[in-house]
Write a structure and sequence with these properties.
Distance between the termini: 11 Å
Number of domains: 1
CATH superfamily: Fimbrial-type adhesion domain
CATH architecture: Sandwich
Shape: elongated
Radius of gyration: 16 Å
């Protein structure tokens, strides 16, 4: 089994960091998480937003995975504002049916085509409706891994 090299980018308010593995190279041009805006606790509709990761990798083809964030679980990621939490999740598809993770616990990963092509992956986010959330500014930090 070949060694696993990881390229990670922290996804939080546009903050990114990158490195490349010894067997392949990637350049991350930007990593911007979904900016949900204002959550209405009285709304019966979920709050949706979209972010993106723009990058270019040389072969071999990486698998793009994302972490659980502060919740430690993929089933209900949480954003925090002090001690208060707000449930949300991140998806690979616009219909928000494929939870983006590391391939475990029913989650999916993105496997782009190989080659030196700049690629932009949308990050579909959703905050479910009917959450009794305290006022505040909520955030979470997600790590994006490129696994070769």
């Amino acid at each position: 089994m070949p060694p696993m090299d990881h390229l990670r980018a922290a996804l939080a308010a546009g903050l990114i960091a990158f490195a490349s593995g010894a067997h392949a190279a990637c350049t991350i041009f930007s990593a911007v998480g979904p900016a949900f805006g204002t959550y209405d606790t009285l709304s019966t509709a979920p709050l949706d937003a979209v972010g993106t990761i723009a990058y270019q990798c040389s072969p071999p083809k990486p698998t793009v995975q994302i972490s659980t964030g502060s919740s430690g679980t993929y089933s209900a990621r949480t954003m925090r504002s002090g001690a208060a939490t707000l449930r949300y999740n991140l998806y690979l598809d616009a219909a928000r049916t494929m939870i983006w993770g590391d391939g475990s616990a029913g989650t999916f990963t993105d496997s782009p085509n190989p080659g030196n092509v700049t690629r932009s992956i949308p990050i579909y986010g959703r905050v479910p409706a009917n959450q009794d959330a305290a006022s505040g500014s909520y955030s979470d930090t997600i790590l994006v891994s490129f696994v070769f």
